[in-house]
Amino acid sequence: MRGGLHILDAVSATVPRGSCTAIVGPNGAGKTTLLLALLGDLPYLGRIDFPGRAEGQRPRIGYVPQKLDFDRGQPITVREFLTLGLQRRPLWFGVAGRWRRKAHDKLAQVQALHLASRRLGALSGGELQRVLLALALLQEPELLVLDEPEAGVDFHGGFIFCELLDSLRKEQHFTQLMVSHDLSTITHHATHVICLKHGVVAEGPPKEVLTPANLGITFGLHMGLVKPDSLPSGLTACTATCCNPPRNHA
Ligand SMILES: Nc1ncnc2c1ncn2[C@@H]1O[C@H](COP(=O)(O)OP(=O)(O)OP(=O)(O)O)[C@@H](O)[C@H]1O
C-alpha cells in the first residue's frame, strides 16, 4: 500500500541466495515499491521469508537508491559522508583513524579511493553511484539491493559498474537484487529475473524468462532479444528490440 493505494498484488517470487536477481517491468509497475517493502520501509500484507532467519528477522541489507536528494552546496567530503553513520563524536573533531581506514577500505573496493577528499556535492553521477555503493558495503550486506544502478550513467560506465558488482558479489558472497530497465545489462549480468507488472508475470533464468511472450505481457509491446552475429572479437552483446505489431495484424 502507498498513499492508500493498492500497488502490488499476487507477488510470489524467490531471490536465490548468491544470485544476481533483476526485477524488470514498465514504469509504475511497482518495482521500487517492492524493494521498499523488502527493506521494511513500507507496510505490506503477506510474508517475506529470509531462509535461515527467525520470522521477522532480516539479514544485513545494503541499499543503493535510484537517486539521492541532498544539498549539493554542503561542504562535506566523501570520507566524512561515509563515516557519518559510523562515528559518534562530531565530525568537527575530525574523522577517527579506525573509521577513516574503514571508509578507505570500502572506497578501494569500489575503485574510488581517489574520491575520498572530494566534496560530495561536486561528484558526477557515476562517481556518486560508487560512493553510494561503498556506503551500502559498509553494512557488510548479506543482501545488496540496487534501484536502477545503470540509470544516469553512460553505457560504458553502466557496464563497468555491473562488472564491479559481479566481482564484489563473488568475493563477498552477498545476494544482489536490482531493479533494471536495461535488458542488455540483465542478459549480461543477471542469473535470475523477475518480470513484474503489479504482480509477477514470470521468474527464472534470463534465457527462460526474457521471451517475446513474457516481454509482451510485461511491457505491452512485441519485443525480442537480438544477438548480433558479427561483433568485434571477444565482445558479446544482447540488445532488446521492440516494435509495435504490424497494423494489419493489430
Ligand atoms: N507515495 C506514494 N503515494 C501513492 N502512490 C505512489 C507513491 N509512490 C508511488 N506511488 C505509485 O505506485 C505505483 C508504483 O510506483 P513505483 O515507484 O513502485 O514504480 P516503479 O515500477 O519503480 O516505476 P519506475 O520504473 O517509473 O521507477 C505508481 O503508480 C506510483 O504512482
From TrEMBL:
Transmembrane segments: none annotated. It comes from the Bacteria. Residues 1-223 form the ABC transporter domain. It holds the Pfam family ABC_tran. Keywords: ATP-binding, Nucleotide-binding, Transport. GO terms for molecular function: ATP binding; ATP hydrolysis activity. The keyword Glycoprotein does not apply. InterPro entries: AAA+_ATPase (IPR003593), ABC_transporter-like_ATP-bd (IPR003439), ABC_transporter-like_CS (IPR017871), Metal_Ion_Import_ABC (IPR050153), P-loop_NTPase (IPR027417). This is ABC transporter. It comes from Desulfobulbus oralis. The lineage of its organism: Bacteria, Pseudomonadati, Thermodesulfobacteriota, Desulfobulbia, Desulfobulbales.
